[in-house]
Design goal:
It contains 10 helices and 4 strands, in the order βαβαββαααααααα. It is α+β, with helices and mostly antiparallel strands and about 240 residues long. It folds into 2 domains: about 110 residues, 3-Layer(aba) Sandwich (Glutaredoxin), CATH 3.40.30; about 110 residues, Glutathione S-transferase Yfyf (Class Pi), Chain A, domain 2, CATH 1.20.1050. A 4-stranded mixed sheet has the order 2-1-3-4, with helices on one face. A hairpin with a 5-residue loop joins β3 and β4. The chain is globular. The structure holds glutathione.
Length: about 240
């Protein structure tokens, strides 16, 4: 049985996994299962494919079903599984200072920048179905997320010399986070905050694993727009 990775091309969390798969040469062992999301996912439980729900009760992508039937969610857990169990620790050693140094970069990129990016997008799309306001977002929340991103980019800039070695899980996560700032927030000034990091990223993005996984919009599926029944079941107003 091949592994199954539930995926959309817009998700930077999922891209961490697809870049890791390519860097480890595991493409033939993974079936990519595309998912389609209506924009309503931001505030509502939307209809999910049954195989996706079977793979993850969290209903977030990425989700990986392994060859022996383990169900893994969370991009960092999935990347560590691929590296540790199938990749002979090529992208992060099994233990010691170097492992934790690399994983500290993964956390800043994932729990810091990527989570802030997705929360900004979600907040900007917030709207109750019965609202007369075109948008209902909190400017201060959006600003808070932006400031979190800026702090993380500043720290990565201070650590830019750590990015000179061969590709590792930290570089992959940071590269995917930089890419989403360019893709979703082209007016952000992260390159000014982190000029040395930006120089590294402009080289890193030329790797075939990065070029072959460029972000694109999640396909929309009108058949997956929520119905009154699904909203009621989810307790949504
Ligand atoms: N911590 C998780 C975050 C995953 C996540 O937030 N995925 C987003 C897509 S980029 C998602 O599926 N959102 C749907 C939802 O929250 O309902 C990870 O690293 O994988």
């Amino acid at each position: 049985m091949t592994m199954k990775l539930f995926y959309t091309p817009a998700s930077h969390f999922t891209r961490k996994c697809t870049v890791t798969i390519k860097e480890l040469g595991l493409e033939a062992r993974v079936e990519i299962v595309p998912t389609k999301w209506p924009h309503a996912w931001v505030t509502e439980t939307v209809p999910y494919r049954s195989d996706f729900l079977d793979a993850t009760p969290i209903a977030r992508i990425p989700a990986l079903v392994t060859e022996d039937g383990l169900k893994l969610t969370d991009s960092s857990t999935i990347c560590e599984y691929l590296n540790d169990e199938l990749g002979s620790y090529k992208l992060c050693p099994a233990r010691g200072h170097e492992r934790w140094r690399i994983l500290s970069l993964v956390s800043i990129a994932t729990s810091g920048i990527m989570e802030a990016q997705v929360m900004r997008i979600a907040e900007l799309r917030r709207k109750r179905p019965d609202s007369k306001q075109p948008q209902e977002f909190s400017s201060s929340f959006v600003q808070k997320m932006k400031e979190r991103q800026e702090r993380c980019f500043s720290v990565l800039e201070q650590r830019h010399e750590e990015f000179s070695g061969p590709a590792d899980l930290g570089q992959i996560a940071v590269g995917c986070a930089c890419a989403t700032s360019d893709f979703r927030f082209p007016d952000d000034q992260w390159r000014r905050t982190a000029p040395n990091l930006a120089r590294w990223y402009d080289e890193f993005r030329e790797r075939s694993s990065m070029r072959e996984t460029e972000p694109a919009e999640t396909p929309q599926d009108p058949d997956l727009e929520p119905t009154a029944t699904t909203l009621e079941a989810a307790g949504t107003e």
